[in-house]
Amino acid sequence: MNQLTPEQERQCEVDKIVAYRACFSTAPGKKVLSNMLAEAHFFEFAKTPEEQAVENFMKKALCNLGIWSLENSDDFVELLMNLSVKEN
């Protein structure tokens, strides 16, 4: 099995992010991602190990989109704070 160079590993990561964004940046893709987050109860507190596993899977999907990362935390907080407050 061939080892990838650091540059090849980085390119694979970039390619994955590009592919995920191509899929989920379309109008239908955004609806699907929104539905996936809702179905995974992403915006609720995980109560069981199974729910935590599903939440982690969705976090990984957001990582694959290049969104969920410590490097984006300031931008993420800025976006969150600009959202309107909705009553349940």
List the helices and strands and how they pair.
Elements: H1 6-24, H2 27-39, H3 49-64, H4 73-82
Folded structure, characterized:
This protein has 88 residues and is an all-alpha fold. It has one domain. 66% of the residues lie in helices and 0% in strands. It is built from four helices and no strands. The chain has helices at residues 6-24, 27-39, 49-64, 73-82. The longest helix is centred in the N-terminal third of the chain and has 19 residues, at 6-24. The protein is globular, with a radius of gyration of 16 Å. The protein starts with 5 loop residues before the first helix and ends in a 6-residue tail after the last helix. The model has no long low-confidence stretch (mean pLDDT 93).
Tell me the number of helical segments per DSSP (H or I, 4 or more residues long). 4
Q: What's the pLDDT, averaged over the residues?
A: 93
- Helicity level: 55-70%
Q: What is the end-to-end distance?
A: 53 Å
Tell me what portion of residues adopts beta-strand conformation. Answer: under 5%
Q: Given the C-alpha coordinates, what overall shape results?
A: globular
Total number of distinct structural domains: 1
According to DSSP, the number of beta strands is 0
Secondary-structure element pattern, one letter each? HHHH
Instruction: State Rg.
Output: 16 Å
Uncertain residue ranges:
none
In this structure, how is the largest beta sheet organized? none
